[in-house]
């Protein structure tokens, strides 16, 4: 099974073609650029370049996996809209994946629980907790690092690098979701060929922009 994996929930613009065969997950081609302002500009070229690097065309794909966050509105919208457009054009299913779960899927087992933290801006982190097997036990949530109470001492994701000292955690790899991690997180539904869940973004907080209120009525004196 050939899967196009896309994620734009972090500063990394990520696309890759991954071969899935039972428990075997192999990245055939990928393109990753860390630029928080280039999601909309780069995600489609990255997907096309990843397919070319894998020696396939988009018509060879069996499915698409896309990270649905948590993440900022603009970044998530770019990746999810691209994945939905490709899926519609190619007639293949598009599976949503939690981006924190995709990072967790790439953590090398160490026999201990760990966190995944990504930068939520505003001096906050998106986070989730996982047991030693990589199963999520809490989250996802958004919080100020200073308010996050935990006894866990290891954390993956770029938020662990930014706020490791505040949280007293040891940063571990990976920093961002990878194409292979996205496919690992969706492996069971991909292999079962289940009907995809709706593509619902995880924003976890209200957007900065707000709909303007109605104009005040002006009455003559």
Strand order of the largest sheet: 3-2-1-4-5
What is the CA-CA span between the terminal residues? 73 Å
Rounded mean pLDDT score: 93
* Count of individual helical segments: 6
Report on the architecture of this protein.
- This protein is an alpha/beta fold.
- 29% of the residues lie in helices and 29% in strands.
- It has helices at residues 39-54, 73-90, 99-105, 158-167, 179-185, 187-192, and strands at residues 2-7, 12-21, 24-34, 63-67, 94-97, 114-121, 124-130, 136-143, 154-156, 170-172.
- It has a five-stranded mixed beta sheet, sandwiched between helices. A five-stranded mixed beta sheet has the order 8-7-6-9-10, sandwiched between helices.
- A hairpin with a 4-residue loop joins strand 1 (2-7) and strand 2 (12-21).
- Helix 1 (39-54) packs across helix 2 (73-90) and helix 3 packs across helix 5 (179-185).
- The protein is globular, with a radius of gyration of 19 Å.
- The mean pLDDT is 93.
């Amino acid at each position: 099974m050939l899967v196009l994996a896309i994620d734009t929930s972090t500063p990394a613009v990520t696309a890759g073609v991954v071969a899935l065969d039972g428990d075997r997950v192999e990245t055939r081609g990928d393109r990753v650029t860390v630029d928080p302002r280039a999601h909309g500009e780069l995600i489609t070229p990255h997907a096309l370049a990843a397919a070319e690097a894998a020696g396939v065309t988009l018509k060879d794909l069996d499915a698409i996996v896309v990270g649905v966050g948590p993440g900022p509105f603009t970044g998530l919208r770019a990746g999810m809209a691209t994945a939905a457009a490709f899926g519609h054009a190619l007639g293949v299913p598009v599976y949503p994946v939690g981006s924190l779960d995709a990072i967790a899927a790439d953590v090398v087992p160490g026999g201990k629980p760990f966190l995944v933290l990504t930068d939520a801006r505003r001096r906050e982190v998106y986070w989730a907790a996982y047991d030693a097997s990589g199963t999520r036990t809490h989250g996802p949530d958004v919080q100020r690092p200073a308010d996050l109470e935990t006894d866990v001492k290891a954390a993956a994701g770029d938020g662990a690098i930014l706020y490791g000292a505040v949280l007293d955690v040891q940063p571990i790899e990976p920093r961002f979701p990878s194409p292979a991690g996205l496919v690992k997180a969706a492996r069971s539904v991909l292999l079962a060929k289940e009907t995809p869940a709706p593509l619902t973004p995880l924003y976890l907080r209200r957007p900065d922009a707000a709909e303007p209120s109605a104009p005040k009525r002006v009455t003559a004196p």
